[in-house]
Fold:
Amino acid sequence: EIVLTQSPGTLSLSPGERATLSCRASQSVSSSYLAWYQQKPGQAPRLLIYGASSRATGIPDRFSGSGSGTDFTLTISRLEPEDFAVYYCQQYGSSPPQFTFGPGTKVDIK
Amino acid sequence: QLQLQESGPGLVKPSETLSLTCTVSGGSISSSSYYWGWIRQPPGKGLEWIGSIYYSGSTYYNPSLKSRVTISVDTSKNQFSLKLSSVTAADTAVYYCARLRIYCGGDCYYWFDPWGQGTLVTVSS
Structure:
């Protein structure tokens, strides 16, 4: 089973700043298998990025994803007030077929 | 616009079976492009995938829960369901249903979107 680790656990930033979130896999993952979600308190997760770097429909271009192999990054270029939330990475593993999520990174207001 | 809505008891006794249903509206559960899934989130914790199903009934489950999980589909009602047996307090969580998109071009892509609003299930006597 592939384990995902996210860092940092909490990121304290101000609006307008750049946020860089890391997702590391315990073994190599196909980029197409990697997605990112945003979750606000009391809400369901929302898809941001799929295939490591493709933005989902309606997601602002300040959100971008990159990476390959075992290291993936979600970048928020300039934080808006509505971006303060928890972010999860997720990967698909094929043997056996299963999905795993990282523990999340909380982006809060400094 | 596709919407998913979870329903079922909010309180289940230890050792009993948790049963939830997800109703899909605004689209057909029988679409060939999608699977459907259940994901849960214990209070204050992260997300755990439970399992997924295709409209044909093909399923795959989280190995850690496989012995206790059954996911089924009712295409006539545009619904899919979750049963989790022998529950304990550790199964207390918000349970989400979601559409799983699997897109294969050269590579295959997998993502959950959209999600239902979630329903809290508490296991307690």
Summary: Chain B has a mean pLDDT of 96. The radius of gyration of chain B is 14 Å.
